[in-house]
């Protein structure tokens, strides 16, 4: 199968607890390659734009406040079946439902402060990567 790319965010609850390296090790151990990575402090406008699909959801304002509450690490991950593979490593949105050994089971604090984001389809991955990265920043 051809290589695929997905977009990942290490969220503020995880950067605050200095978990970037541990999360990156789990991604790499699962066979994903980090082909772009940068730390950022999201603005309110950036977070609102990124999560625009959720703007009618009751948790939208809280989510934007959380995602701007501290630094994040923006990443492009590459590998076979990268979108699905990353979703498997992440685990369920709510850590109470996440499988043993997943990032969210290991580290998430709550359904909101759940340590990582990962694209949910190849189409959204392409949109999300382009939202934060230029082509020259991605080195596969
Ligand atoms: P993500 O987009 O961050 O990878 O997570 P996901 O697909 O597993 O979850 P999604 O339904 O897309 O929700 C996006 C993020 O919103 C926060 N959330 N809070 N308070 C709540 O009930 C609630 N539900 C979702 C989480 O941070 C979730 O990852
Ligand atoms: Mg999602």
UniProtKB/TrEMBL annotation:
Keywords: ATP-binding, Cytoplasm, Kinase, Magnesium, Metal-binding, Nucleotide metabolism, Nucleotide-binding, Phosphoprotein, Transferase. Residues 3-140 form the Nucleoside diphosphate kinase-like domain. ATP binds at residues 11, 59, 87, 93, 104, 114. It holds the Pfam family NDK. GO terms for molecular function: ATP binding; metal ion binding; nucleoside diphosphate kinase activity. It is an enzyme of class 2 (transferase). SMART domains: NDK. PANTHER family: NUCLEOSIDE DIPHOSPHATE KINASE, NUCLEOSIDE DIPHOSPHATE KINASE DDB_G0292928-RELATED. Belongs to the NDK family. This is Nucleoside diphosphate kinase.
């Amino acid at each position: 199968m051809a290589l695929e790319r997905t977009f990942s965010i290490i969220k503020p609850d995880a950067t605050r607890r200095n978990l970037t390296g541990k999360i990156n090790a789990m991604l790499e151990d699962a066979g994903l390659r980090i082909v772009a990575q940068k730390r950022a402090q999201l603005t309110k406008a950036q977070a609102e734009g990124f999560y625009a699909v959720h703007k009618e959801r009751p948790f939208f304002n809280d989510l934007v406040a959380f995602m701007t509450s501290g630094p994040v690490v923006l990443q492009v991950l590459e590998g076979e079946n990268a979108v699905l593979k990353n979703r498997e490593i992440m685990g369920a949105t709510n850590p109470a439902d996440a499988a043993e050994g997943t990032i969210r089971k290991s580290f998430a604090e709550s359904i909101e402060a759940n340590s990582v984001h990962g694209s949910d389809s190849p189409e959204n991955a392409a949109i999300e990567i382009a939202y934060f990265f230029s082509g020259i920043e991605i080195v596969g």
